[in-house]
Design a protein that fits this description.
The chain has 145 residues and is of the alpha+beta class. The protein has one domain (12-126): Cytidine Deaminase, domain 2, CATH 3.40.140. Helix content is 25%, strand content 21%. It has a five-stranded mixed β-sheet. Strand 4 (109-117) and strand 5 (120-123) form a beta hairpin. The N and C termini lie far apart (49 Å). Bound molecules: tetrahydrodeoxyuridine. Tetrahydrodeoxyuridine binds at residues 31, 34, 36, 38, 54, 56, 63, 65-67, 97-98, 101. The site of tetrahydrodeoxyuridine (THU) has 13 residues, from helix 2.
Length: 145
């Protein structure tokens, strides 16, 4: 597979391996209420991979999406930035991260971060345009006062 735009050929992403990692994580999901297991996996800028699965709760609204546990893993295993991300459902089919999770992923994005989506490989800026992010909290300059 050709590397997605923005990622040098020498650092091509192995999307099949990332999807497999997401699939393995999906098998560990705790989804007794929705019966909709989800797995997510990310390749970080230092070459590490992390994964996550959804963890539901009897108080339904407290459910943790797979992306929530994944970003926790990033931080717990040393931090870093996401170069490539994949998310799959119970059938192993690519799944679009929900809106809240796009925001969670945005926080940890590497420049040009790519996602495997239902419409092929796309960038985080494409799936979360005009995002609110860490830069938005920087102190305003003179002109902003
Ligand atoms: N889910 C995720 O884990 N990630 C998403 O981006 C979308 C939804 C989970 C939450 C819930 O456990 C199940 O899918 C059904 O909504």
């Amino acid at each position: 597979m050709q590397p997605p735009e923005g990622i040098p050929e020498t650092e091509a992403v192995d999307w099949a391996a990332l999807a497999l990692l997401a699939h393995e994580a999906m098998r560990k999901a705790y989804a007794p209420y929705s019966r909709f297991p989800v797995g997510a996996a990310a390749l970080l800028d230092d070459g590490r991979t992390v994964s996550g699965c959804n963890v539901e709760n009897a108080s339904y609204g407290l459910t943790l999406c797979a992306e929530c546990t994944l970003v926790g893993q990033i931080q717990l295993t040393g931090g870093g930035r996401i170069r490539a991300f994949a998310c799959v459902d119970g059938e192993g089919t690519p799944l679009m991260p929900c809106g809240r999770c796009r925001q969670l992923l945005y926080e940890f994005r590497a420049p040009g971060m790519q996602l495997m989506t239902t419409r092929g490989v796309r960038s985080i800026d494409d799936v979360l345009p005009d995002a609110f992010g860490p830069e938005s909290l920087e102190a305003p300059g003179e002109e902003g006062l």
